[in-house]
Amino acid sequence: MSKEFKVLYFASAKDATNLSSETISFPSSNPSSISLQELTQILKSRHKKLGKILEHSMYAINMKYVEIDDTSIFVKEGDEVAVIPPVSGG
Amino acid sequence: MSKEFKVLYFASAKDATNLSSETISFPSSNPSSISLQELTQILKSRHKKLGKILEHSMYAINMKYVEIDDTSIFVKEGDEVAVIPPVSGG
Amino acid sequence: MTEPKKDFVKLTTDVLVLQEIVDLVKDNGAGAITTFNKTVIKLDYESYIPMAEKVLLTSISETRSKWDLIKVAVYHRLGTVPVGENSVIIAISSVHREESLKAVEWLINQLKEKAPIWKKEIYSDGSVWKENKH
Amino acid sequence: MTEPKKDFVKLTTDVLVLQEIVDLVKDNGAGAITTFNKTVIKLDYESYIPMAEKVLLTSISETRSKWDLIKVAVYHRLGTVPVGENSVIIAISSVHREESLKAVEWLINQLKEKAPIWKKEIYSDGSVWKENKH
Fold it and tell me: Rounded to an integer, what distance in angstroms lies between the CA atom of residue B88 and that of residue B53?
């Protein structure tokens, strides 16, 4: 079985993907860890409408916010990645 | 009938005078108007224990605060004067 | 048509119920409601009631000049207030949250500084009138 | 002996009742309770619930590092909130009034900025996800 990570979609990202969540396998080129730049490319290629939303979103990895262009962060096997559009609670 | 004004006592001033209010006649020397300095003298002479409390109190004349040493203010016939010790609402 | 009442000031020996006072300031246009309430150990309050009402209405009017508020309620209990009950409740509604938040803080400070209301703490060895620090 | 619970965070589709949330933060030592609540026109809320709980508990912990607070409750409603009902209630108790007053304001701002919660306004010609301004 290939290694996987999970992606959660909320609000406008959920509308754009028509998904609450999905499980994605690591690419054969990077079988156990990808950068956030690779993550963004993978998500964009899977969901046409998501590109524009990602420009204004953050990621949360295992419920911790990371900037979408943080080059020091990698997604690893079993991670839970969330696409977090601008929040509007209250 | 001589001209009068009314004095209200609250909190520590009420305890010191054992009165909630009293009606006082103007002195024959000033039959229709007295200064706050005269008022203070009159109240002190009527109530021994009030002197110390007046040092830290304000007056209200017809429900408007006045400084106890304001020389521009006079008590006139029918006025309602209140002795206002330091407030502690809330 | 009469203007709906927007300012509510009451000095009362009745129990103060938070929800009732919040209901006074509810409004279709009010997105935000901030409340402040104080509970006490057993205390006795007295007031120069008509002047306190006048002073509090003036303080409300000053508060309204500083922030855009919808409705304002200031209730103060008098007489003996049992342990754990509310002595004062302020509730303010506004369109935007910043306004009711700032206004409640300012108004409780005005009340404590200016309203002719006094509290007496009751100790086993006697009572003492308190003084608010400015 | 277990420490009594002092922080209360809930994301729920249930109706939020102010008095119940105030009761959570009541305490014998708490002289002052400040609350903030927001009522809405019809709105839909959704949340990344476990992360929102974590973010709000962290925000409460930061709030406690700034002010001396007794108990803190943050309740946020999710799903469809009918007109005039509460979307969020914050209640904080403290010994001194300044602390709960300042802390409520700070914490509602933290919630709006950081908690992964989204609201959707429902118009006759479609829905739109909102964005909080910082």
Answer: 15
pLDDT single digits (tens) C13-56: 999 999 999 999 998 888 899 999 998 888 999 999 999 999 99
| Terminal Cα distance for chain D, rounded | 43
Contact of C121 with chain D, judged by CB distance below 8 Å, is answered with no
Residue A45, pLDDT above cutoff 90:
yes
Q: Does C66 touch chain D (CB under 8 A)?
A: no
C131 chain-B contacts, CB cut-off 8 A = 85-88
CB contact under 8 A, D112 and A82: no
* Nearest-Cα residue of chain D relative to residue A15: D129
Q: Which amino acid is at B58?
A: M
Q: In what side-by-side order are the strands of the sheet with C126-129?
A: C79-81, C43-47, C117-123, C126-129
Q: Which two tokens stand for residue D45?
A: 């809320």
Residue scoring higher pLDDT (C134 or D5): D5
State the alpha helices, DSSP H only, in chain D.
18-25, 49-66, 97-114
Written as one letter, the residue type at D60 is I
- List the beta strands (DSSP E) in C1-134: 7-12, 32-39, 43-47, 71-77, 79-81, 86-94, 117-123, 126-129
CA gap A38, A51 in Å, rounded: 13
State the amino acid at position D1 in one-letter form. M
Sequence-ordered list of residues with C-beta below 8 angstroms from that of D132, at least 6 positions apart, any chain: A86, A87, A88, A89, A90, D112, D113
CA-based nearest residue to D8, from D76, D102, D96, D65: D76
Query: Of D34, A39, B1, D120, which Cα lies nearest the Cα of C100?
Result: D34
Torsion of CA B43, B46, B51, B55, to 10 degrees: -10
Which amino acid, D43?
Answer: L
B55 touches chain C (CB under 8 A): no
Which residues have C-beta within 8 Å of that of residue B16, sequence separation ≥ 6? B9, B47, B49, B50, B53
Q: What is the ipTM of this complex?
A: 0.90
Q: To the nearest whole angstrom, how far is the Cα of B86 from the nearest Cα of chain C?
A: 6
